[in-house]
Specification:
The protein is built from six helices and eleven strands. It is α/β, with parallel strands linked by helices.
C-alpha cells in the first residue's frame, strides 16, 4: 500500500485533509509544522508523493531528491510564478484563474505540470481558499489514482512578487474606485493573513467582511491605537 504526506499549515487545507484526503486509498500523514518535515521521517515512511497545498517555505534539494513533491499554485503557469498569487491576480482585475499541480524543482514554480483545474476568484480570500482546498483534494485523488506524466510548462513566464503586510494599506491603491477598494479588502480577508488597513490620526483601521452594494461598501472594522 502506498504512503503519502500532505504538508500544509493553512486551516482550510488541514480541515480538508481530515474531512476527505485521509480517507483516500493508501496510508496518509499530515505535517503542519515546517520543522517536522524532516529527512529522517521521510526516509522512514518512504512516501510515494508529498503534496504541498499552500506551502510557503523552500523545500530542500535533499527532500526533492527523495521522492516526488507536488505543490499547487493558483495561476495558469508559467503565468504568475512567485508569491501571493491570489492577491496579485485580484489586484490586477482577474475574476478566474487555474490551479496548477506541479512537480517541485529547485526553481520557484518552474516544474512540469501534472494537471490544471479552473477556479473562481469571487468572494473573500477565505472563501476562495476554502473552495480551492476542495479542488486541490480532487486533484490529489486524480494524481494518486492515475498514472499522470507531468508535462513541461509552455508559454512566457510572468513573475509575481510576494506581497508584504505594509502593502495592505488602502491609501496606496494607485487607481481608487469603489470596486478597487472592495477587491483590496476581500483579497486579504482570510485567517492567518494581515488585513487591509488605513492609519489615521494615530489609529489603525483594519477591514474585513466587506460587501459592495451599489454605491457603497459595508465592512467590519477593527480600530486599534498605533503604538510608536
Amino acid at each position: 500500500m502506498n504512503t503519502y504526506i500532505v504538508a500544509t499549515t493553512k486551516p482550510w487545507n488541514i480541515k480538508m485533509f481530515r474531512k476527505k484526503i485521509c480517507h483516500y486509498p493508501g496510508n496518509w500523514f499530515i505535517i503542519t509544522n515546517p520543522q517536522k518535515l524532516s529527512i529522517k521521517f521521510i526516509k522512514k515512511i518512504k512516501p510515494t508523493y508529498i503534496f504541498f497545498p499552500h506551502w510557503s517555505w523552500i523545500v530542500s534539494d535533499e527532500i526533492l531528491n527523495l521522492t516526488k513533491c507536488i505543490c499547487f499554485h493558483e495561476t495558469d503557469l508559467p503565468f504568475g510564478r512567485g508569491g501571493s498569487p491570489i492577491q496579485n491576480l485580484i489586484i490586477r482585475g482577474y475574476r478566474k484563474t487555474m490551479i496548477s499541480a506541479i512537480e517541485m524543482q529547485k526553481g520557484i514554480d518552474t516544474g512540469p505540470v501534472y494537471l490544471k483545474k479552473p477556479v473562481r476568484l469571487n468572494g473573500t480570500a477565505q472563501e476562495i481558499f476554502e473552495r480551492n482546498a476542495e479542488i486541490v483534494s480532487r486533484m490529489i485523488y486524480l494524481i494518486i489514482k492515475k498514472n499522470i506524466i507531468p508535462k513541461p510548462q509552455r508559454g512566457k513566464a510572468i513573475i509575481f512578487k510576494r506581497r508584504t503586510p505594509d502593502q495592505g494599506n488602502i491609501a496606496n491603491i494607485s487607481t481608487v474606485s469603489l470596486e478597487k477598494v472592495y477587491d483590496f479588502i476581500r483579497m486579504l480577508d482570510a485567517e492567518t493573513y494581515p488585513k487591509s488597513f488605513l492609519e489615521v490620526a494615530g489609529f489603525r483601521f483594519e477591514f474585513s467582511k466587506a460587501n459592495k452594494n451599489k454605491n457603497k461598501i459595508i465592512a467590519s472594522v477593527e480600530i486599534t491605537k498605533i503604538n510608536k
